[in-house]
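Hello, quick one for you while I still have it in my head. My current little project is about how a certain protein chain folds up. You're getting the sequence in one-letter code plus the fold written as tokens. Would you mind checking whether the tokens look sensible for this chain? Here's the protein in full, and shout if anything looks odd to you:
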Amino acid sequence: MAKISDAALTITHNANGTSRAVVKCKVTFTPYEMNQMKAGLRLRLKAELWGDDAWVFGGDDKVYTYTPIKYFPDAAPTTTETITFDAIVGEGVLDEDIGRDEIHGRLVLTNLYTMVTASAKTNTIARHL
């Protein structure tokens, strides 16, 4: 199965009450997958933002799903793809706790033939709103 690496989240706060949330990663496909994509295999990469919560508070909660979802092969398939998900969200979306918020990104790559998945988690960004 393809691998997701170098998953990273950055959040930039804007003066107008919004934030720019960027999730980046690399996806490396196996030689078999590269060959199968020529024959019609498709893979889907989804990115989400999650609030990091202790299990006593019900666990992590999803706060945002990036659109559009990325599909492979793309227009110019390569063994390693560098992917960026970029969105402007309201500060309220990232305000997932009372007090300090902890936000991380999650990436899930799905082989749409076998439904086998690979996943990765980004760094966690903690801040107070």
